[in-house]
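Notes continue from the previous slide.

Worked example: a multi-chain complex. Inputs as given:
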Amino acid sequence: MNLLDGLNERQKEAVINTEGPIMVMAGAGSGKTKVLTTRISYLIKELGVNPYNILAVTFTNKAANEMKERIAKNLDMDTKWMWISTFHSFCARVLRDEIDNLEGYRRGFQIIDDDDQLKILKEIKDDTELDFRPKEMSKLISKYKNDIKFNFFEERNKDTFNEVNKKYSDYLVKNNLFDFDDLILKTIELFKKNPNVLERYQEKFQYILVDEFQDTNTPQYNLVFMLSTRHHNIFIVGDDFQSIYSFRGAKIENIRRFKNDFLEHKLILLEKNYRSTTEILNLANDCITHNPNQIKKVLESNNKSGKKPLYYPAKRTAEEIAFIVDNIKKINISGVPYKEIAVLYRANYLSRELEDAFIKAKIPYKIYGGLSFFSRKEIKDMIAYLQIIINHNQDFSFKRIINEPKRKIGGATLEKLAAVAERMNLSLYDAIDFYESKSQGAINLVEFKKTIDTIYNQIENVRLPDLIDIILKETGYKEEMKKEEDPDIFNDRMDNIQEFKSVLLEAEDYYEEETKKKLLEALLADLTLRTDKNDTDNNDSVRLSTYHQVKGLEFDTVFMYAMNEGIFPSDMIVSDAEMEEERRICYVGITRSKNHLFLSSSESRVKFGSMDYFSESRFIKEMKRPLLDIFNPYNIKTEFTKPQVKLETKKEEKVTSDITLGDKINHKLFGDGVVVSQEGDVIKVAFSAKFGIKTLKASHPAIRKL
DNA sequence: CGCACTAGACTTTTT
DNA sequence: GTCTAGTGCG
């Protein structure tokens, strides 16, 4: 089969124009991934380019893996070793190979995540007189590193920042650690200070491709720019309409910068949308026209027609949610699997109220967001153990697990040990040999060292998953877990560890290093970058998540929940530029749907524990009415009335909700009856023979307790 | 050292 | 409402 089959003219153009800088502006659903993967396949198959000479960078592991898979399929070859990766793992890979050229760092460096970063900052706070909030500081440090502007309220805060920032980066260098931002920055530093190294990579990467270009920040742009100056074959794909990560430093201006840096570039527009119905596209196009500073661009319809998006302005969240639940059921019965349905919202806290309703309605769902698999405590502990086993000198990991499980090695003992290490210029682990004391602490330290040595001596002879079992047993970790946690949590944690073991099993095949130790080294270096959420189980459930998390995905049916002013757009927005980005988030939401789109709002809702009133989102107000159908169960005018009645409704709900099993009640229409079942607000009532058993809402005004 | 209690935060977050 | 960081006590 020909690679180019099934591509439209524009897409083909983007594939076969292999030489020189190319900028592809690809609208939502216009076949961007297809173009990227076909282009790489084309380079290899038709032009005979060595895969090693191609570099493709993305932002998520998921996108990188998907590209690899598609190319593997196209060319029927193994692609796991190709340079198709996230910005961060690309940098990690370069740094691992070139670390000797980077001053201050050594082999076996470790990458830390946000959690670790916070820990270090707390440590700095405890060790100094500096007064700051670690969480706040970590945000500032990241902003600083990614060239994001920020202001200090007071001059002395600036001094504090500078001092903490200095201490923090010294800490990282001393402990041979990189945070996520460092991976990019230090790679740039490496290239700047070693022109010969840079030249090698410039020479190597004859073809460079960048996905989601509108999301690149300044350092990422600089990195890509540096690499491409030799061959100039740089291919970027982006969509300024979908730029929603400016808070992470992403700069739409990079598109303009690219035009200036590569004046001879060729521009290709992909505007033909293959995803959504005409009705959905019309709404998306209408939405984005309200951004004054956006380049005009219209998604062309695929002439696939469907239903108009349906908007429900509810009075109460309960009604709004009932609308969603009802429609999910209907859509599902009509043949759409749950996993093709998504309920999207602006912020994670909005998922709670939905979750309760989904449980009651017995709709399978999955919430995305929250802790990633690799940031769970037990997993991080296991990683730290592996780290310390193969590299005893990792003080950072040492500190994490020295008293985990509890070995009665407390702050005092550790401080003394740190002093010894400092004096003799040793790692904490090696300093144990010189810790001269007869205290219990000393005995415990030696005991710990023995345990680690015992495990170390076994690594070459066992399979990696078994190594975890050995750690669990030898260190007493499992026993302590069993003792400390209640059975449910214990089982949960063991399940996670089991999952981790399967990751290790996979790794044994994946990596080609000759010793177990080297294999582990390579794996551990990658692990922190594997933040993909537990995405593996492909059971059929509705997806609940934020708009940000579904960028790049598509669903048959999308619900846009809580379309209220102050929620979406968020009330944290202050500038016009931010409001435009907020509108782009709305655009991203709309364009996720293929066939059905539902939007809803509620006049009253509970935010942070207290009831409040919200007007409908400006994004709804500004949508041209003919593009939307309004759902109106009461058949009254849909203009919002001001909420005088609301407090009463609330009271009523409280008064009547104490109806439970066996209660006698009166219903305005059905007369007297007895409650025969109750599940939350949902009750079943046995009325007289004429009406039989009815399922009702306990809080309904027609019901009165007798 | 580890707990229990209180005060405060609470938008998004590809890595 | 719910989580978590920080404090203070046993």
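Summary box: The first helix of chain A runs from residue 9 to 16. Residues 636-657 of chain A have pLDDT under 50 and may be disordered.
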